[in-house]
């Protein structure tokens, strides 16, 4: 039955959430030194690759030499090297560690990589100064597909930011031994000429064993089986996510998706499909008209197990009591603490509808990043998405910021020389430049 349970603070991977936060505070308070060490590690590991050898670094790992010798590069500059790797060149072209797969991403317009540095905070609750950025872009772009390298270092940095963000969320909205109703989906995979798997960055992450382990550690284990996440048809997977979520309704403490629009789409679908979902629960079998994939049907059959008319009646009763579907999430998932996903940039458009479905549940904006890598974490999860800021993680990549000054009359921006992470000015607009362990 759909009963509300008490919750308390949990641990992150056997370590207290407060310890994770303390380590975060340590590196952000010492951002200048941490940035120098991060660049040193990147260059020490990758200094012998073909791309950097041709730039005359000669073993130098300091920021001044790096900025003087290594020019700013766009994807177009790196594309010939990435294409060689995709075609099977196994030599250290861009990275010392081999690419394990290729991430596909649409090319974004130039302004999409900008962020406005809205404040440098000194918050008593956080114990120190933090560089925070208000994001202008959620990383959602459209256009021509491009290849990006993906390796184990990107998986590590992704898990790092997941754990940090969770520690702050769990301090504000504690969960305990719960599951997450996650509307996540894999994308179709292809093979490059050299045999590397090419798919979206999120699919590369979902396929990693580290992802599953981290989701368990941070109380965000998905209700749905892998067959649903990696199903061949989006509509069938969405339907099964909803069904799996209803079957585990009492255990769900987080409702999430990568992007806010995915949660909105899921509940727009629920409005049309709830009677079919109730019928499936009642008879203990997924509708053959809704789900045709044999693998997905088998996985869902294991979850359904037996008819459950009591749950079906309860879901139907709660749906009938709703007014225009307001508050459907807390009505059906009474132990949910918050709704989580990227809600900034172009995703802010969906916040109003998402708030309608969430009723009084908090909406928490997810991390700030892109396919190339992560930039910052939301360390104030209680702040509404419209006012969310993101604290830059100085040990996740080496960051530079190109100042953008508005040009009077033409609506464009004039660029200046890049500045370092600790050299930015509050209230100014910058384009983010990243040097990562994947050499993006």
From TrEMBL:
Keyword Transcription regulation: no
InterPro entries cross-referenced by the UniProt entry: GH3, GH3_M
Domain GH3 middle: 390-438
Key word Ligase present: yes
Annotated keywords: Ligase
A GO molecular function held by the record: acid-amino acid ligase activity
Any one of the GO CC terms: cytoplasm
Family per record: Belongs to the IAA-amido conjugating enzyme family.
Protein name stated in the entry: GH3 middle domain-containing protein
């Amino acid at each position: 039955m759909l009963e509300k349970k008490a919750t308390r603070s949990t641990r992150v991977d056997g370590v207290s959430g407060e310890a994770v936060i303390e380590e975060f505070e340590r590196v952000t308070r010492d951002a200048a030194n941490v940035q120098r060490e991060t660049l040193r590690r990147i260059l020490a590991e990758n200094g012998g690759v073909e791309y950097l050898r041709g730039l005359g670094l000669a073993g130098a790992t300091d920021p001044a030499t790096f900025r003087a010798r290594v020019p700013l590069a766009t994807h177009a500059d790196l594309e010939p090297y990435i294409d060689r790797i995709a075609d099977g060149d196994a030599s250290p072209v861009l990275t010392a560690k081999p690419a394990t797969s290729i991430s596909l991403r649409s090319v974004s317009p130039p302004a999409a990589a900008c962020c406005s540095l809205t404040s440098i905070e000194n918050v008593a609750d956080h114990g120190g100064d933090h560089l925070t950025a208000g994001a202008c872009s959620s990383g959602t772009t459209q256009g021509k597909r491009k290849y990006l390298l993906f390796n184990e270092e990107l998986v590590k940095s992704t898990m790092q930011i997941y754990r940090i963000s969770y520690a702050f969320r769990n301090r504000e909205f504690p969960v305990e031994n719960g599951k997450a109703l996650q509307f996540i989906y894999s994308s179709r995979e292809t093979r490059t000429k050299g045999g590397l798997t090419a798919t979206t960055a999120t699919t590369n992450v979902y396929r990693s064993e580290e992802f599953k382990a981290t989701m368990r550690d941070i109380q965000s284990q998905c209700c749905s089986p892998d067959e649903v996440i990696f199903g061949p048809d989006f509509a069938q997977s969405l339907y099964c996510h909803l069904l799996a979520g209803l079957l585990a309704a009492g255990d769900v403490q987080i409702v999430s998706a990568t992007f806010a629009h995915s949660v909105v789409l899921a509940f727009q679908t629920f409005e049309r499909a709830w009677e079919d979902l109730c019928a499936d629960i009642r008879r203990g079998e997924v509708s053959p008209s809704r789900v045709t994939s044999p693998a997905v049907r088998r996985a869902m059959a294991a979850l359904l197990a037996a008819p459950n008319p009591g749950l079906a009646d309860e879901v139907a009763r709660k749906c009938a009591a709703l007014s225009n579907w307001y508050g459907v999430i807390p009505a059906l998932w009474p132990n949910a603490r918050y709704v989580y996903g990227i809600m900034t940039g172009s995703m802010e458009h969906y916040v109003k509808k998402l708030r309608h479905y969430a009723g009084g549940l908090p909406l928490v904006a997810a991390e700030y990043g892109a396919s190339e890598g992560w930039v910052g974490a939301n360390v104030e999860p209680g702040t509404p998405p419209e006012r969310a800021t993101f604290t830059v993680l100085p040990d996740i990549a080496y960051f530079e910021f190109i100042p953008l000054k508005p040009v009077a009359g033409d609506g464009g921006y004039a660029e200046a020389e890049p500045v370092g992470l600790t050299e930015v000015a509050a209230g100014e607009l910058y384009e983010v430049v990243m040097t990562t362990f994947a050499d993006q």
